[in-house]
Design goal:
With 192 residues, the protein is of the alpha+beta class. The protein is built from seven helices and seven strands; from the N terminus they run E-H-H-H-E-E-E-H-H-E-H-E-E-H. The protein has one domain: Aminopeptidase (3-Layer(aba) Sandwich). The chain has a seven-stranded mixed sheet with strand order 1-2-3-4-5-7-6, with helices on both faces. Strand 2 and strand 3 form a beta hairpin. Helix 5 packs across helix 6. The radius of gyration is 16 Å and the shape is globular. The structure holds coenzyme A. Coenzyme A binds next to helix 2, strand 4, helix 5, strand 5 and helix 6.
Length: 192
């Protein structure tokens, strides 16, 4: 596990809430960003796919099906999303995707990304009572790979996982167990 580092001094609490129809504009803008699409998707998304995805986010109900989507706000500003997929209530695991929406935050050296991971872990382990979360990150996504190493363990490399215009790209699988999250919180002296 990587060494602890101080959290951002920002006093603006990060909150996770469900997506509302009034959020469609901002989420549409984020999902249309080619660099975010390349980071998150196997293929470019069409406008119709983006609309379908947004409706899917809005309808998602982690307790009724296998999906759970949350919009993240800092102050009242929307800053990103957490998306749980394939929630398995028997084995108590799920895949998680996280992203920072506004480019200005994705380029900055704030600790927003780390705080988003903590929020995702809090929802997964403290609210859902899951035992494991895992995430897929593409090999060209160096910053996101680095960010995942902060809190999660690299468990697998899927070679030539996705076809791009310029050849095949690897995907890395990261995992985190509930007890690892709690130990990490204790080591960092962070209270959920
Ligand atoms: C995943 C995400 C939310 C993390 O946020 P973040 O702001 O990048 O996270 P952090 O600032 O905590 O960590 C970034 C790390 O990458 C490092 N970094 C920054 N730019 C880098 C680069 N070009 N190459 C390699 N490392 C880089 C930072 O120094 C930091 O490392 P450190 O913690 O060892 O200092 C954000 O990167 C994102 O939205 N990515 C695009 C969407 C995505 O790929 N989501 C994951 C799919 S599951």
């Amino acid at each position: 596990m990587a060494a602890a580092r101080p959290l951002s001094q920002s006093s603006r609490t990060l909150i996770a809430r469900r997506l509302l129809p009034s959020d469609r504009g901002i989420v549409r803008q984020w999902l249309s960003d080619p660099s975010l699409q390349r980071a998150m998707e196997d293929e470019r998304m069409t406008k119709a796919e983006i609309e379908r995805r947004i409706r899917h986010y809005e309808r998602s109900d982690p307790f009724a099906d296998e999906w759970g989507s949350y919009l993240l706000e800092m102050g009242l500003e929307p800053v990103g999303m957490i998306h749980f997929m394939w929630i398995n209530w028997t084995s108590r695991n799920a895949e998680v995707d996280t992203f920072i929406g506004p480019q200005k935050f994705r380029d900055s050296l704030s600790t927003l990304g780390f705080r988003i991971f903590l929020k995702a872990a809090e929802i997964a382990f403290d609210q859902f009572g899951l035992n494991k979360v895992y995430a897929f990150v593409y090999g060209s996504n160096l910053r996101t790979l680095q960010a995942h190493k902060r809190l999660m363990t690299l468990e697998a490399r899927l070679k030539n996982y996705v076809k791009r215009e310029d050849g095949y790209e690897d995907a890395y699988v990261f995992g985190m167990l509930a007890h690892e999250y709690r130990e990490s919180m204790r080591a960092r002296n962070i209270r959920a």
